[in-house]
Every structure is written in structure tokens, then in C-alpha cells.
Amino acid sequence: MLVQPMASLTDLALGLVTLCLVPRLPRDVEGARYWRAAFAWAAVTALIGAAFHGYLVAVPRIGGITWAVMSTMVVVMMSYVLAATVVQVLGRSRAIVFWPLRLLGFVAYAVIAATGHPSIEAIMWCESLTMACVIGLWIWASVRGHPSGRAMLVAIGVSIAAALLRLVPGASAFLRLDPDSAYHIGQIVGMVLLFRAVVRSGERAVTDVRLRRVHDLLPSPRWTWRNISMNSRR
């Protein structure tokens, strides 16, 4: 018998959906390995969450440790999202600039988790700088015409809205679900949208490569005009 059946089942669905998306992520996009790592960590965290809501929440000591581990895994997942964003938007050479900021948030949450106060609220506070960097970079990329800019911002917006369903009292009432279940369902939508945004950038990369190959096969205008001139003189 599940202790929190709806929360457990929705977390299980989130984990399975995210896990199925991992091997389908494109490998020809900048930061591909970071995207795969972010999705993998998110999937494992959700699967552990299904066990937590189903059974471990009834065992306070084990449940507390499990929650601390899960919340720390979310922070690690966000590290990979930031890494993928920086590499994809700015390039690998500038990724090192953002790691001190990432380390600051990670250390802050590690201290909170170690002192026995892990929570969604703590994650939001410690990860606010990371999320600000991610959102700011994708806004900048969208303005500059990045193919995934708007799609990424929509996916991030949905994930933030899902978190608010859990944080704001009564926000999940219109869905007739408890806050945890509403949060999980919102995150399923967010992960699917994030996957589509990454795939879109991969499709654009393949298109660019194909266009470059076609361009390389075509003769240059000078070469063509020279041949035409020579043929006309003959």
C-alpha cells in the first residue's frame, strides 16, 4: 500500500518519461553530453522520489536522508543545465566564467542539506542565481536569433510554473491535486518541452552542416563567370 499514491505514481511517470528521453537526445548539438547528464540525473531523482512518496516518507529517519539526497541531486542536475546552456550559447571557451557562480550555489545548498534543512524553498533560494544565469543566457540567445532560444524559455517557464504549484499555498487546487502531484505533472510537461528545444537545436545544426556541404560542392561565382567568359570567346 502506497503512503502517498498519487504523488508516488506521478513521480514515477516523471522519471520514466525523462528516462525515455535520454537516449533520444541529439548527439550533434553543442553541450550534448551535459544535456544527457541533466536528463539522466532528473530521471533518477524522480524514480527515487517515487519510492520516497510511496514508502520512505513513512519512515522519518530514512525519509529525511532520502529527501536530502534527492534535493542535492536536483542541484547537480541544474549544474548540468547551466553547463549545457553556457556551452551552447557562448561556446566552450567561456564556460569557465560561470563555474564559480555555480560552485557558490552548490556549496550553499550542501551546507543547508547537511544541517538537516533541505527543501524546495531552499533549492529555489540557492539556485536563484543559477536560474537567473540560465534564463539570462537564453534571453540573450533568443534576441540574437538562436533556433532554440524561445523554445528553451518556454520550457524553463513551464518548469518554474510547476514549482510554484508546489510552493504557493492553494495553487494546485484548481487541478484537484495535491501540491506534489501537480508539481510532478507540470515537470513532465517541462521536461518534454525542454527535450523538444534541445532536439530543435540539433536539427538546426544538421541543416547547417548540410548547407555547408552543398555550398562546398557548388562552384564559386568567380569560377562560373570565368568559364562563361572563356566559352563565349570561343
Give a structural overview.
- With 234 residues, the protein is an all-alpha fold.
- The chain has one domain: Rhopdopsin 7-helix transmembrane proteins, CATH 1.20.1070.
- The protein is built from 9 helices and no strands.
- Helix 1 runs antiparallel to helix 2 (32-54) and helix 3 (60-90) packs parallel to helix 6.
- The chain is globular.
Describe how the helices and strands are arranged:
Layout: H1 5-21, H2 32-54, H3 60-90, H4 99-114, H5 120-126, H6 128-143, H7 149-167, H8 179-217, H9 221-233
InterPro entries: DUF6962
Protein name: Ceramidase
Transmembrane segments: 37-58, 64-83, 95-116, 122-141, 153-175, 181-199
Number of strands: 0
CATH class: Mainly Alpha
| General shape | globular
Largest sheet: none
**CATH third-level topology:** Rhopdopsin 7-helix transmembrane proteins
Number of helices: 9
- Structural class assignment: mainly alpha
Strand content: under 5%
In summary, what is this structure?
The protein is an all-alpha fold and 234 residues long. It is built from nine helices and no strands.
Which key features would you list for this structure?
234 residues, mainly alpha, Rhopdopsin 7-helix transmembrane proteins, 0% strand, disordered C terminus, membrane, transmembrane, DUF6962, transmembrane helix
